[in-house]
Amino acid sequence: MALFTRLLKLHTGSVPLEDFFTELVAYLFDTNKEILYDWLIEIGLSDVKNYSEVYISTQKEFDPLDGDKTGNRPDVVIELTGDNGCDIIFIESKVGATAMCGQLERYAKVLDRMANFRHKFLLFITRDFEPKDKAVILKDTSIVQFKQLRWHQFYRFLRSQPDTMLVQEIILFMEKYNMAHNNQFSSVDVITLVNFTKSLKIMEEIMWGKVSAEFKSVLGAIRNRASALTHVQAHGRYLMTTYMSGWWCGLGFILNTEDLTGYPRVCLILEVAPSSPHRAEIIAAMKDIAKKDGWESRHLGDSNTWSSVVREKSLQDFLSKVDHVISIEEFFLQALVELRDIRSEYPNLPWKTVTTVEIAPDGSTLDDAQAGT
């Protein structure tokens, strides 16, 4: 196993994959300026290598914009000083997750308001296909430039660089976590395509009978069945969902895995938005819920991201069962029993479902016609 993969797996805290990878890339740029300069030339952001000073920071906090409740924290900030002036680059990285609604627009505005910089760039680099509209992102800015890239392009660039130990370890890490793929179907991709319809039928049989009826009974509402497919396309998960004021609940299958040998997960999740007006009391309850047997917390201490508690198992845990449908259905029903108890234990939380959904798991606005149905 490669060094950085071992370090990520051995870390006892909650370290998102994309945050860990961000630190690796920032460290590479900070310790090897030639690679940074070559990459900036490669992607068309610069045509020189004569910067006198370079400052690289990660997770740097910027004050909220007018009317916003939370600050802005791009993954990487690169400041470059040369003979002709200073340039600045914000990098937002996504490895599996997707950008929250308005996140890139806010970063562009932050850049636009920064003085004393000649060129201002906003880079959005993703592992997966996630197209963004440049005109929307830059609509309230004047001189900010936006560029979208994929991590497999950076991987190919690294393969052309001198083969140092650090470069080799980052290459191995990117291969491990599916950031090195090209634009060709692999044999595994073809098998997945052939079997997806069958797998979808099994998931539907598990979810849209007793489980969906109990889900609606516990929470009072459930979005329609078709909405679950939008999660497959946008987030790599197949979930039934309902939305409350500033938070949501989902139950189903997390299809994305860290690598090709990983297994999907079955889960029930409660998640609260960073801008939720009820965030403080929900987080306090989530800290208690996470102490319950089988429940885990995610990012409860980070006020700038979605925070959650999850009841989940790997699909691998069910493969030895005689009937996968029945055994997974039983897991979901037991999780919903626990959720009913949680709702009784915390009656003052905003459990009432909403029909006009202002916040979705990716930060987007959901179709009012589908909410609460």
Structure description:
With 373 residues, the chain is an alpha+beta fold. The chain folds into two domains: 3-176, Trna Endonuclease, Chain: A, domain 1, CATH 3.40.1350; 188-345. It is 39% helix and 20% strand. The protein has helices at 3-10, 17-31, 33-42, 103-113, 134-137, 151-159, 165-176, 187-219, 225-235, 279-289, 324-345, and strands at residues 53-58, 76-82, 85-94, 119-126, 144-150, 237-243, 247-254, 265-272, 295-298, 307-314. It has a five-stranded mixed beta sheet, with helices on both faces. Helix 2 runs antiparallel to helix 7 (165-176) and helix 6 (151-159) packs antiparallel against helix 7 (165-176). The longest helix has 33 residues, at 187-219. The protein is globular, with a radius of gyration of 22 Å.
Features:
alpha+beta; about 375 residues; five-stranded mixed beta sheet; 2 domains; globular; five-stranded antiparallel beta sheet; Trna Endonuclease, Chain: A, domain 1; 10 strands
Total number of beta strands:
10
How large is the count of helical segments? 11
Biggest beta sheet attributes: 5 strands, mixed
In angstroms, what is the radius of gyration? 22 Å
Question: So what's the overall shape?
Answer: globular
Structural category is alpha+beta
Please, what is the average pLDDT?
A: 87
